[in-house]
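Sample intake sheet
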Amino acid sequence: MLTSTVCAAVSAAGLGIAALTAYRKRFLAATRIAAFALIPVGLVMTGVVDWVTSIVFKPTVWAGFGVLALSALLFAIGRFAERRRGISGRRERRAASGPGTQAVAPAASAPSLGAGRKAPKSTPAPGAEVAPKDDFSDIEAILKKHGI
């Protein structure tokens, strides 16, 4: 009941300010102020205010929020511990595997050219520039050109 009265008073004050603004020939601003002023009354009429006050003023609701926060904290701690254990577990597995372990097919990713075929040699055309060895040389040239 008290919240409904407060919302009605806030809306009345907002509509009064909107009327004064409209009196000063600022109709667009007055329209916006009136729109904002009607929101509290609309919330009271739809029952949202009663629902919110029943949530805010009940201790059991706040206890529920506390339990949810504790649950989130426990999830975070578990995740942190799992991540730490996962890193040390990988180190132990690498040490146990040793250097003697090899891939099943180490040359499987290499391209096969066939039994008697050789890779074609690429010769640059006469007058063509040879590609630079450094991948970033063209970027460096652009930066030097601009003085960076």
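Comment: The two ends are 69 Å apart (CA to CA). The longest helix spans residues 59-97.
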